[in-house]
Design a protein that fits this description.
Chain A has 303 residues and is α/β, with parallel strands linked by helices. Chain A has helices at residues 43-50, 72-76, 94-104, 110-119, 133-145, 163-178, 190-196, 265-272, 287-294, 296-302, and strands at 5-14, 17-27, 32-36, 58-63, 79-82, 151-155, 182-187, 199-204, 207-213, 223-229, 242-250, 253-260, 279-283. The two termini of chain A are 43 Å apart. Classes of the chains: A alpha/beta (303), B mainly alpha (548).
Chain lengths: 303, 548
Amino acid sequence: MSPVIEITDLSKAFGAVRALDHLDLTVERGEVHGFLGPNGAGKTTTLRVLLGLLRADGGAVRILDSDPWRDVATLHRRLAYVPGDVALWPNLTGGEVIDLLGRLRGGVDRTRRDALLERFDLDPTKKGRAYSKGNRQKVALVAALASDAELLLLDEPTSGLDPLMEEVFRQVVAERKAEGATMLLSSHILSEAEALSDRVSIIRHGRVVESGTLAQLRHLTRTAITVDVVTVPAGLADVPGVHDVRVEPHGTGARVTCEVDSDALPTLVDALAGAGVHGLTSAPPTLEELFLRHYSDDLAGVR
Amino acid sequence: MATTTLTRRTATVAAPVARFTGTGHLVRLALRRDRVLVPIWLGVFVMSAAGSAGATVGLYPTEASRVSVAATINGNPSFAALYGPILDPTSMGQVSLFKMSAMGAALVGLLAVFLVARHTRAEEETGRTELLGAGVVGRWAPLSAALIVVAGALVVLALLTAAGLVGAGLDAVGSLSFGLSWLVTGLAFTGIAAVAAQVASTSRGTKGLAAGVLGLAYLVRAVADGSPNGDLVGLRWLSPVGWSQELHAFSNPRWMVVGLAVVFAAAMVALAYALVDRRDLGAGLLPDRAGTATAPRNLSGPFGLVARLNRGFLVGWALGAALLSMVMGGLVANIGGFVDENSRPFFEALGGQQGLEDAFMAAEWSLIGVFFAAFAVATLLRLRGEESAGRAEGLLASPLTRWRWASAHLTAALGGAVALLVVAGVFGAFSTARATGDDAWWGKVAGAAGVQLPAIAVLAGLTLVAIAFVPRWAVGVSWGLFTAFFLLGEIGPLLELPTWMLDLSPFAHTPKVPGEVVSAAQLGGLVAVAVALVAIGLVGYRRRDLEA
């Protein structure tokens, strides 16, 4: 079966700015694909090309076996989209917008719509101008998730949602995935992509720099650990899965900083037993840190 | 800092000075945003006035020649109603600027309305006021900054206009009084727009409300000037547009009228400040009511959506059109009353009572045609507005094609214009036929209304082309073209511009009906141009990137 999305060598420039620079991306049927990158990397531009809102300068784009620029009406019946920045009509209610978008797609599944309104705790009788950013986001989410689209394009779908609603969103995504829907989910938050995605592509300066399953990208998901100890255990740097160990004096003891692969955390904790740990913090790496660490050559080149 | 401990209720009446904090910074911000737009508009106004004056000053060198031409103009009731009469036939300035006095003052008022809305409600609607309001900015500062900038621009406009008129050969005191006659109406509508910006919750609503008051004010003075034997001339004092006439520029100016305008504007501004204190940021005076949880049946596609979005705008225009054409129609029956012995030969030359009535009707409808073209441009520009607001993105990601989306807006623009022509036609024909007792007017008015549509369609076509090919500049280009065509028709002949230049305006090709023989080739030509422009625009819009 051919992939749902197949992009090869896609380029797009706005004047002198090269937004997409020979980008390749493949999304297989039935997977949730995380599309990760810092702000301004080209995520939204890629989605807009996939929607036929922007015209590609070069390269080949196939989506659901169609040409996104030519086959707008037939293609869009099969997909749904949540824009990154949801703008609503000031004098239309959220319910009206959800129905309008549903009817443009061919019909509204009322039970599904009402259930989603309930779960996202959204009041559909408010006018567009009265909604907060998070509630505008919910309007677009309900409109997209209530459809029976086989492909969902979600551009930073949880921006503006509170943690409770993020959890609801994750559940709904899991349900839609179980029903067989394919999703491309853009984000600049690594943990969000980790929680939802089967595979991840990382985009930077308009090109995909890493792509694979989370296991394949394990080296990107190390946790940063800082421990204050009385004595530094010997051979800490040799523990498998522990990287970049640095030791500096701290008070009467020492402060150890290191990075550890997620599956090696238990080993590290064992190794620290008896070291007299009196302070410990752990932090998942932010995407920006990852980029700084893994693509610093690239960064230096840009500068 | 003592105010921070007060209760919320008393905090709203905190030291007045604190409420102006930050005004200076906002003034500089507004000036920077307006550094291109406002100079261009001021230039257009100054050049229109100076150009008209310069072109006519040499034509009527003697007082007798001026009295004669003024008698001709005053004897034509359509001129008196549409532009206002020449109050002092001996005055060079009044004779040469009669088209620019009441009409010019109303356009200055419109400029004030647009500028106030741009710097108050539009800023608030887009959330920029919120961004600034969180900084050290007093509650009254945004409105104050807008008023300072707009009033300042109007004063500069008055002085530049006076200077331009002196340069065109008119006397200094008279020129200054004419500049001030524009300022009078401009200041009044600055105040009115300031209040409208508090009452309405969108910038579109603000402009609609204030421009509606402006239209009403113009109508009141048209009724005053169009009344037979000047019976109702006192009504002018009820209209801020009439005030500019009552200043009697170039003829023993009544400087006190400037004081009247300043007092009126100050009262309006005080009301606006009071309203600012009584409403929330982002809200209008009327609270938002909850709407329906589900979409009504007719909101099911692009056409339903566009109809819904333009509904209020169209209803406002239709009310104005009905009122305008009713009043104008009623004036036709009084035309005989205007004719005195001086203008009798002119009257006969035009074809007597019948010819004059036809000419009046034709002049009225060519102006209505231009107005409705403005409606079509404003309505079609929503196609671009939806795109720049980011709302088109979600729609075009659905199975909606760009063809249908653009067609829906085009239908709203042209369908709305047709609806307005029908409304104005029915009300105009009814009141004219009733006032004159002649049912032949129904046919004549139908013809006069019908011939306006092709030129309106050409304007819509040009707007669509602008949206398709220069989206970022579409608003400026569309309104710029509209203004240029309007001015070509109004003052182009005065400036003795070459025919080919006057013919650039689509309005120049609309036959003057009733009276003139309608040429099918002429109307067909306009229709062909409109169709070609629309086709080019649709293809261009389909083929370009969507731009935020």
